[in-house]
C-alpha cells in the first residue's frame, strides 16, 4: 500500500496517509489515458462553424458575360469561389464532434494518471483547506508554501470559500472529487488534495 506525507496549510509535514493500491498504485494504461484525453478534447468542441458553398449563396443566376469574344476568362456565375461574395470551396459545416468511451476505460485512465502523480511525487495531501473567508491572498500563500509552478487543487464538495479564493490565482484550478478529469490531472504539474477528499476518492473510485 502506497504511503504519502500529509501537510498542513503552511507546508509543514504533520503525518502520513495510506492510499488504496487499487486506485493509486496500478499498472499505468497509456492507451486508456490517450482515449480519455482524446474524448475530452473532442467533447469541448462546439461544432457550430458553417459557411456556404456556391450552391447555397444568393444570386449568381445570370452569366457575367458571354462565353467568347470578350477577351476575358470565361465565367459562369458571380457566385463562383473566385468571386467576391462567392461560395466557399469545401465549406466547413456544423457537425457533432462528441465521443463516448466506456466507463471502465474512463475509470482506468483516471486511476492511471493518479498513479503517475503518486509515483512522480506530485501528489500532495493537505490536512484541510478550510478558510474562514474568501481571500485570494490566503490561498496564494498555501500554494506558495509548496513551491510549485501550477496545480490542480481537489477538495471535498462544499468548500466554497477555498474554491472561490483560488479563482483568480494563475495556473491554479480547483475541482471537486466528482468533477476531476484525466485531462486536467495531466495538464497541471502538481495534484493537491485534502485528506477528506482522498477518503472520498477512495470510496467513489474503488
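Q: What amino acid sequence fits the structure above?
A:
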Amino acid at each position: 500500500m502506497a504511503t504519502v506525507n500529509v501537510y498542513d496549510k503552511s507546508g509543514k509535514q504533520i503525518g502520513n496517509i495510506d492510499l488504496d493500491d487499487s486506485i493509486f498504485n496500478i499498472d499505468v494504461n497509456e492507451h486508456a489515458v490517450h482515449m480519455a484525453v482524446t474524448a475530452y478534447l473532442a467533447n469541448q468542441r462546439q461544432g457550430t462553424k458553417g459557411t456556404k458553398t456556391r450552391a447555397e449563396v444568393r444570386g449568381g443566376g445570370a452569366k457575367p458575360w458571354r462565353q467568347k469574344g470578350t477577351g476575358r476568362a470565361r465565367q459562369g456565375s458571380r457566385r463562383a469561389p473566385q468571386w467576391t461574395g462567392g461560395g466557399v470551396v469545401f465549406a466547413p459545416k456544423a457537425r457533432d464532434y462528441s465521443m463516448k468511451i466506456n466507463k471502465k476505460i474512463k475509470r482506468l485512465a483516471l486511476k492511471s494518471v493518479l498513479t503517475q502523480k503518486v509515483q512522480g511525487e506530485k501528489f500532495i495531501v493537505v490536512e484541510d483547506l478550510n478558510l474562514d473567508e474568501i481571500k485570494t491572498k490566503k490561498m496564494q500563500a498555501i500554494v506558495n508554501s509548496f513551491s510549485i509552478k501550477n496545480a490542480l487543487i481537489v477538495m471535498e464538495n462544499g468548500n466554497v470559500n477555498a474554491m472561490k479564493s483560488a479563482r483568480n490565482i494563475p495556473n491554479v484550478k480547483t475541482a471537486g472529487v466528482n468533477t476531476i478529469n484525466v485531462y486536467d490531472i495531466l495538464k497541471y504539474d502538481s495534484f493537491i488534495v485534502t485528506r477528506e477528499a482522498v477518503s472520498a476518492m477512495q470510496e467513489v473510485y474503488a
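Q: And what stands out in the fold?
A: The longest strand covers residues 13-19.
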